[in-house]
Write a structure and sequence with these properties.
Elements lengths: L12 E7 L8 H18 L2 E6 L5 E7 L5 H16 L11 E4 L3 H9 L13 E2 L30 H12 L3 H6 L1 H15 L3 H8 L3 H12 L1
Antiparallel strand pairs: 1-3, 1-4, 2-3, 2-5
Helix pairs in contact: 1-2, 4-6, 6-8, 7-8
């Protein structure tokens, strides 16, 4: 039976909970590998991560602000990458993850506070959500009442339309972008954010490699 599509939520911030009937984390080496995969996905899709919990062996939680890309695309990237790393004989994630929408500041605080609930062993250090306490987890973004603006999901602008608007606004043509790297990079970031298109789509538009687009997005977003 095919899975039913998720309803579109009027927020871009979620508390993700994924459980597995199998062993997800055999040791802390697995946990650190999982964090590196989340960090790589964060760089690629430019979401914010405000907290995570990987204390339990068969469950993980993330609190993320997706901003420009869909939650399904981000989670697919993380789950597939980690499944390849584990190389289990059975599907590691046979059940769909829960995505709990967060609509305001109290919602986020409540979600963050639940990350450590009921976990008393020494692995609780891997339930983490404060970037000012420990700088070793670089994927964590600082969270405060002023650092987050929860916006409603909006219908993305088609990439072709977004591209034409950029050229019009800057009074230039595609050849100008090819000769002006800074302007080209601005355009790439704008297309990615407004259209929600894939990195491959943009790489085809500019006739450059997807890896270069990823590097440009990471640089321009910082």
């Amino acid at each position: 039976m095919p899975r039913v599509a998720r309803k579109t939520q009027k927020t871009t911030l979620y508390h993700i909970i994924q459980q597995s009937p199998f062993l997800l984390f055999r040791d802390n080496q697995d946990r650190m590998k999982f964090l590196s995969i989340v960090e790589a996905s964060k760089s690629k899709y430019q979401f914010n991560c405000y907290g995570f919990s990987i204390c339990l062996d068969q469950r993980f939680e993330l609190i993320i602000h997706v901003k420009h890309q869909s939650i399904s695309k981000i989670m697919q990237s993380i789950l597939i990458s980690y499944s390849k790393y584990v190389n289990a004989s059975d599907p590691l994630f046979p059940n769909r993850y829960k995505s709990i929408p967060l609509y305001n500041y109290p919602d986020v605080i409540k979600a963050l506070d639940t990350l450590n609930t009921g976990i008393l062993d020494k692995k609780a250090s891997l339930c983490f959500y404060s970037s000012d306490k420990d700088q070793s987890y670089k994927l964590i973004d600082f969270f405060s009442k002023d650092s987050i603006h929860i916006t409603e999901n909006q219908t993305p602008i088609p990439v072709d339309e977004s591209f034409k608007l950029f050229l019009t606004e800057h009074g230039c043509c595609k050849d100008d972008l090819n000769s002006n790297q800074a302007l080209r990079n601005q355009c790439i970031l704008k297309l990615y954010r407004e259209s929600g298109c894939t990195i491959k789509t943009i790489s085809n538009l500019f006739n450059v490699s997807p890896s270069l687009i990823s590097k440009i997005l990471k640089k321009e977003a910082n």
